[in-house]
Amino acid sequence: MSYRDQQKYLDELRKYEKKFDHNELEEYKMFVKMQKDEEEFDSVSLQRLTELFGKYYQPVDKHKYDSFFKKRDNL
User: What is the per-residue pLDDT for 74?
Assistant: First the structure.
């Protein structure tokens, strides 16, 4: 995984930092420190980062906004 992808994961997880339990918060801080030192993540830490991302990041359901952007048939 590239440096840019790692940065995207960490930026997105920053929003959920308050929801982390103690162990997850310590791991997240370690990931941020590794990123600042410009170290490449090894496979174990990369896997843990993606697990944290999958646990907390919920993509927005865009289908609920379709009703606002429908074309009106009767003008």
Answer: 64
State residue 56 phi and psi, 5-degree precision: -105, -30
Q: Which of 4, 11, 6 is nearest to 50 (CA)?
A: 6
Which candidate, 53, 43, 48, places its Cα nearest to that of 11? 53
| Nearest Cα residue to 14 out of 29, 4, 35, 33 | 29
CB atoms within 10 A of CB 39: 13
Confidence (pLDDT) at 55 = 93
Give the pLDDT score at 54. Answer: 93
Q: Using CA atoms, how far apart are residues 1 and 46, in angstroms rounded to an integer? A: 8
Distance in angstroms (rounded) separating the CA atoms of residues 58 and 37: 29
Please, what is the end-to-end C-alpha distance for the chain in angstroms?
A: 51
